[in-house]
Amino acid sequence: MHITHESLGSVIKKTNCAVIVKVQSASKPQIERFHKTINITAIPLKVIFGELNATGAVLFRYLEGRPHFRNQTTVSPLVSGSGQEFDLKKGDEAIFLLGTNNNESEYHNLLRVETKSNLQVIKRCKKEIQ
């Protein structure tokens, strides 16, 4: 069983905001039967596109489907993440791609984490879909 990661271009299409952040803390992954979640507190350094109406430390949540069996069928989820989401630690600077927020939650919906070295690739992908 495995996880399939969406392409960056596919994730950019559903990204409302991209922001460079400095990680303040990251929880231990919470593993449940069908998904794994991590909560991250980070300080926004620069918005690349979109809007992030927040100041100071901001709460983010990433949720990733887990491989599992449904009846006799293997379910290998397609996830928006890059694979770096669960490796974040205090002091890391990264690009967070954010999706639509659930207004009932205090957390911003984190779709994907990218390294700062991918900044130009992200800008190019966003420009291509506009």
Strand residue percentage: 35-45%
DSSP, total strands: 10
Could you tell me the mean pLDDT?
88
Q: Name the structural class.
A: mainly beta
User: Low-confidence parts, pLDDT < 50 over ≥5 residues?
Assistant: none
**Order of strands across the biggest sheet?**
2-4-5-10-9
Radius of gyration: 15 Å
Shape: globular
Q: What is the N-to-C succession of helices and strands?
A: EHEEEEEEEEEH
**Count of DSSP-assigned helices:** 2
| Helicity range | 10-25%
Q: Give a quick account of the main beta sheet: strands, pairing sense, barrel closure.
A: 5 strands, mixed, barrel
Give the distance, in angstroms, between the N- and C-terminal Cα atoms.
Answer: 36 Å
Key terms:
five-stranded mixed beta barrel, 130 residues, mainly beta, globular, 2 helices, two-stranded parallel sheet
